[in-house]
């Protein structure tokens, strides 16, 4: 495999490995051997090391002295901790959109994402569904105008994608639950109802957490 610009080589390697972790091809606690990745992708060992550091920052691998890089574990404590934090971050983004949208054009990106989510659900396309579910938060970034919030969410997004993918892969019918919750969230944003935004997102994250934990129990 050959990687090219515009992304840096290490970012491209990190994305490739992240996709394998998210889809479960690389299992929890599995060691990622630098030499094997270097040979498989025909890249330098230094680029692989930098990619692993990126994945560590994104909570997909743990790098231990003299033991190398291993895929992070998914357990109940980690899942609940991640869902709780993401719920607060999502609420910040949702409130920012509610406070600052001014016309229909501002809301159009969210309506287009909703259409894509519906289409992915109808095709039972898990990968696209997960990707588009996170497109929602990226559409909200300009309204928040907070680089620290954006960086934090982006670094946590791969870990959350991994959890969602696991849940939806085993329980595809539950994609409809996400669609309903997203529709309710849009209604709350349009109404500028911040209390309802928090309530909807709390329900969304709780439901997500339950799905992931149920999937873990049967994995």
TrEMBL record:
PROSITE patterns assigned to the protein according to its UniProt record, in alphabetical order: HTH_GNTR
Write down the SMART domains for this protein, in alphabetical order. HTH_GNTR
The molecular function terms in GO held by this entry are: DNA binding; DNA-binding transcription factor activity
A Pfam family matched in the record: FCD
Span of domain HTH gntR-type: 7-74
Against Gene3D superfamilies, the record matches this protein to: GntR ligand-binding domain-like (1.20.120.530), Winged helix-like DNA-binding domain superfamily/Winged helix DNA-binding domain (1.10.10.10)
Looking up CDD domains in the UniProt record yields:
WHTH_GntR (cd07377)
Q: What keywords is this UniProt entry annotated with?
A: DNA-binding, Transcription, Transcription regulation
Cite the InterPro entries for this sequence.
Answer: GntR_C, TF_FadR/GntR_C, Tscrpt_reg_HTH_GntR, WH-like_DNA-bd_sf, WH_DNA-bd_sf
Q: Can you name this protein?
A: HTH-type transcriptional regulator McbR
Species source reads Pseudomonas wadenswilerensis
């Amino acid at each position: 495999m050959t990687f090219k610009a515009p992304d840096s080589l290490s970012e491209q390697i990190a994305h490739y490995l992240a996709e394998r972790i998210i889809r479960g091809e690389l299992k929890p606690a599995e060691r990622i051997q630098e030499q094997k990745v270097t040979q498989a992708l025909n890249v330098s060992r230094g680029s692989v090391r930098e990619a692993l550091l990126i994945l560590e920052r994104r909570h997909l691998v743990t790098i231990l002295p003299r033991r190398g890089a291993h895929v992070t574990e998914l357990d109940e404590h980690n899942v609940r901790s991640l869902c709780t934090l993401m719920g607060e971050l999502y609420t910040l983004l949702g409130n920012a959109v509610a406070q600052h949208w001014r016309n229909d054009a501002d809301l159009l990106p969210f309506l287009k994402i909703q259409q894509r989510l519906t289409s992915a659900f109808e095709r039972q396309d898990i990968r696209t569904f997960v990707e588009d579910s996170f497109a929602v938060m990226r559409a909200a970034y300009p309204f928040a105008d907070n680089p620290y919030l954006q960086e934090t969410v982006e670094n946590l997004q791969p870990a959350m994608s991994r959890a969602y993918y696991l849940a939806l892969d085993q329980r595809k019918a539950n994609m409809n639950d996400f669609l309903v919750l997203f529709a309710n969230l849009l209604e709350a944003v349009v109404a500028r109802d911040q209390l309802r935004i928090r309530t909807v997102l709390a329900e969304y994250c709780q439901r997500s957490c339950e799905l992931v934990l149920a999937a873990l129990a049967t994995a």
